[in-house]
Each structure stands twice: as structure tokens, then as C-alpha cells.
Write a structure and sequence with these properties.
alpha+beta, 6-stranded mixed β-sheet, 491 residues, globular
Length: 491
């Protein structure tokens, strides 16, 4: 009966999704929101953040009110354009810092070319560190050889979560996430792919807050055929960022980033997507709609290679009032509100964060169903469900509900008051009696509002074996393990 009902719900959801998708497709073709801005010379006392139109990639030039400069990422095949842009803004080609968020070509590919052939110099180069084998590409190895050669004066410096970057007294720059080569984690979450390693920065100037994080991932995903994947780092980062004014959109608006919980936490008044001609579907219509539900969405280009907004230039002299491509805005603290009028549709798609099958939306912190033992026999006397907290803060599970079939099946179980799952920790629930079917069933975690936090379906199972996620926050294993690990790291 539940399977039939689920099928009907899925069909209805598909119809809604198709309708939203058609709406987004029709309206995104008219998403040209402003004329491209030309680079302008920085003025003392002015914060200037330039999202340079480099096509499918990233390059962001930040200049603090004190005049300290930082280039975040150096897109491949745009060195001359970026060098000229730096000269136009600074009147020089010397940068205090270059920060490479991660080692993909569209973020660090033209670093060597920029410095070797176009006259740009740098005081310090920040990245996540690592030896010549930290990433397996010729471009990275070329980059590594250059920045580690002292004759080039690149001054390579490893940056870590919790570090700050000195951009002057008025501009705070905090590193809120960065891949750690030693632990293989970022913000406490096990890294699956290179994007997960992205260095994430929160900038604060008086009341104004801005976030930029390269290709930071927001979904637990593994493509076995393509051999690439993502871990949901965004959900662990979101509480550390909080509400902001402007969001430099992760991963060019990819469907694997900017998850609903992350966007609901940041609630950006404006969002800026850096993208160009591509075959990846960037930016994803659902992501644009999700952002547009909170405010204006700027976009440098589109997937066909057309200019939409071109260079997107943000300026502020007091950290309260700011402009983006000439349009004036005000911070939330001084009365700025989420208008939800920007972007291609102004709608929101919703969705579950961290769930394997979805089924509802949530604004609660994500908690993952991590391991399930449905059929105890000799080694185990009770069924168990292990939950994992990927966040950097403790989460109170009091009143959360564990269910198999939402609205049907076995009676739901309510988690006892005072149950707190620590940051990066586990909570193992052992129901009294038999709850989950040995022939296959669903396991669902619902928050206080009845929203699905996470959900997983498993097939027929054997005795004393568990279904589990790889190394906690990874994808679900397609097979069981005969060595369950309740309350400890999964295989």
C-alpha cells in the first residue's frame, strides 16, 4: 500500500517539477539583468569586489578600503584579460594575495601564465597545501613547481579553516572551510572529490557580509560510471556563515551545490553566478530559482556563451550602503530585505538536504542516517539506526521522529527529550521490538515540523548485517557489511 502511495506522490512531484522546469526554461532566456560593467579604479576607503567575466570559470578581485588586494582564483585561458583588469583597478599589477580555492583548471589554470607572462606579481599565494601529488593533473604539477620555486617569489602558504587573512583593519576575512590534506576532511566532513576541498571565505565590512567558496559542494553524490563525486560540505559550513548580503554562488550554479538548507541559512539579498559557455548545465534552473526566492541573481554569462551581466562589480564605502553594477542596496541590519524579485523566475523548488530519496523540505540542520541493521539475530539482539552529525555544532534531536513509512506502516518512534548528537558524532537508536522489515523497507528521520531530514530505502537483507554509508557522510554502499560499527566510523 505504501509503495502505491509513494508512486502517486512521486508522479505528482514529477508533474510539479516539470512545470517549474518549463517555467524556468522559458524565463531564463530573458535573464539579462544589467549591462556589463567596465572595471573602475579603486578609491581609498572603498571596498571593491569584482566578479570578472572570464567565461566558464572563476576570478574575483577584492580590494579592501585600506587598499589591500586579493585575487581569488585564476581561470584558465584568461590571463591577459585578468592582468589588464587588475591594472585598471589598482593602477599596478602587484597583488598582496592570490588565493587558489582548489586545484581544478578553471580555478587555478592560468596562475603561472598570469605571473610569468603578463607581469603580475604577488606577495603571498594561499592554497590548501599538499605535495606535487596532491592532485593528479599536469596543470597542478606546473603550478606546484612554480609556487615552490623560491626564485619566483610566489611565497606559497597553506591556509586552514579558522585562519584569517589580513586585508586591513576594516575588512574581516575568515576561512570557514578548507580541505585538509592530512585528515582528508573539510569542515569535519570526509572529502569525496576535489571540489569538496574548496577554500571558503566570509568577508565582513561593518554590517556587510559576503561569501565566496570556489566549487564548494552541497550534495552527497557518487557517479560510479564517471568516477567522480561530491560530499555535502555546504551544510556543515552554513551555520558558520549565517545570514549574509551577497553570495558568490558555489560551483557556477551547479545542481550539486547551493542546497536548500544552505541557501535558507544564508538568505542572500543578492547572488552572483560566474559562468560561461559549458555543457554541464550551469547554472541549474532549480538553483537559480532557489536563489531568486531570496533576491536578485546576477550572472556573468550563460551556457551558450552569451554575456548576461558581464563583469559584476560591487562597491561600498561604509559597509551599510553598497552598489552592484550601479544599482544601490542596503544591508539587512539597516533595513535591506529579501525581495525575491530577481533571477529567472523568483520561485523556489525546495527539496530535502542530505536525503537519499527526498520527499520534503527542511530548515533544520542536516543529520544523516548513517547505518541501519534491520535483522538482528545472534551477534545483535536489537535493530539499530545510527545517525551522524556532519555539522560543526551539536544538534538537539529531542522530539525528532523515526519512521519507516511516513503516514503509514509501523507506528513512528519519537526521540527522547534531551537527546543531543555532538558535532561530528553519532547517535544510535535501538527500538524496542521489530520495526523494520527484513524484506526491505524505508527508514526516515523527521524534524519537529514533520519535514524529512533524511531518508533511505534498503532491499531484502540478511541477519546481523548492516547497510551503511562509506566513511560516514559518503554514498550508501550497494552491499551490506558483516561487521557493523554502531557509534563508530563506517568502513
Amino acid at each position: 500500500m505504501f509503495r502505491s502511495s509513494l508512486k502517486k506522490v512521486a508522479q505528482a512531484a514529477l508533474a510539479v517539477a516539470l512545470t517549474l522546469g518549463m517555467t524556468a526554461a522559458m524565463s531564463s532566456s530573458t535573464a539579462n539583468t544589467a549591462n556589463a560593467a567596465n572595471p573602475t579604479a579603486w578609491q581609498p576607503g572603498q571596498l571593491q569586489i569584482n566578479s570578472i567575466d572570464v567565461g566558464q570559470g572563476d576570478a574575483t578581485l577584492i580590494v579592501s578600503p585600506e587598499g589591500k588586494s586579493m585575487l581569488v582564483d585564476v581561470n584558465q585561458s584568461n590571463a591577459q584579460n585578468i592582468a589588464n583588469y587588475i591594472q585598471s583597478v589598482l593602477g599596478t599589477k602587484h597583488l598582496d594575495y592570490i588565493l587558489v580555492t582548489h586545484y581544478h583548471a578553471d580555478h587555478m589554470g592560468d596562475y603561472v601564465n598570469l605571473l610569468r607572462n603578463y607581469g603580475v606579481t604577488v606577495g603571498t599565494t594561499y592554497d590548501r597545501g599538499g605535495d606535487r601529488n596532491a592532485y593528479s593533473s599536469t596543470l597542478y604539477q606546473t603550478y606546484y613547481d612554480y609556487v615552490t620555486n623560491k626564485r619566483n617569489n610566489a611565497n606559497r602558504t597553506t591556509i586552514q579553516e579558522g585562519d584569517t587573512i589580513d586585508m586591513g583593519a576594516s575588512l574581516s576575512v575568515q576561512v570557514v572551510s578548507a580541505g585538509n590534506n592530512a585528515t582528508g576532511k573539510a569542515s569535519g566532513v570526509t572529502v569525496v572529490g576535489e571540489n569538496d576541498n574548496s577554500i571558503a571565505l566570509k568577508l565582513t565590512f561593518n554590517e556587510f557580509d559576503y561569501f565566496v567558496a570556489g566549487d564548494l559542494s552541497g550534495e552527497n553524490y557518487w557517479n560510479s560510471a564517471g568516477g567522480y563525486g561530491y560530499a555535502d560540505i555546504e551544510s556543515a559550513v552554513a551555520p558558520k556563515v549565517g545570514s549574509i548580503e551577497v553570495y558568490r554562488v558555489d560551483h557556477h550554479g551547479s545542481s550539486h551545490s547551493s542546497n536548500q538548507y544552505f541557501v535558507d541559512t544564508l538568505q542572500p539579498l543578492q547572488s552572483i553566478i560566474s559562468t560561461g559557455k559549458n555543457s554541464y548545465g550551469h547554472p541549474d534552473n532549480a538553483v537559480v530559482d532557489r536563489l531568486a526566492a531570496y533576491g536578485k541573481v546576477y550572472q556573468t554569462g550563460d551556457a551558450s556563451g552569451n554575456t548576461v551581466d558581464g563583469n559584476v562589480i560591487l562597491t561600498s564605502t561604509d559597509g551599510v550602503h553598497y552598489t552592484i553594477n550601479g544599482t544601490s542596496y542596503i544591508t539587512k541590519e539597516s533595513g535591506g530585505t529579501n525581495s525575491g524579485t530577481g533571477g529567472s523566475t523568483g520561485g523556489s523548488t525546495g527539496g530535502s538536504t542530505g536525503g537519499s530519496t527526498g520527499g520534503g523540505s527542511t530548515t533544520s540542520l542536516p543529520i544523516l542516517i548513517n547505518e541501519i541493521l534491520p535483522a538482528p539475530s545472534r551477534t545483535f539482539s536489537n535493530e539499530f539506526i545510527e545517525f551522524y552529525n556532519p555539522n560543526s555544532v551539536d544538534v538537539d534531536l529531542s522530539g525528532y521522529v523515526i519512521d519507516d513509512i511516513v503516514g503509514g506502516g509501523t507506528a513512528p518512534h519519537t526521540i527522547a527529550s534531551g537527546t543531543v548528537i555532538p558535532a561530528g558524532g553519532y547517535y544510535v537508536y535501538e527500538p524496542s521490538g521489530s520495526v523494520f522489515n527484513n524484506s526491505g523497507d524505508d527508514v526516515t528521520l523527521l524534524d519537529l515540523g514533520g519535514n524529512i531530514v533524511d531518508q533511505h530505502s534498503y532491499p531484502s537483507t540478511s541477519y546481523d548485517v548492516s547497510w551503511y554509508r562509506y566513511t560516514d557522510s559518503g554514498e550508501w554502499s550497494p552491499t551490506t557489511t558483516s561487521n557493523p560499527t554502531p557509534g563508530a566510523l563506517n568502513p
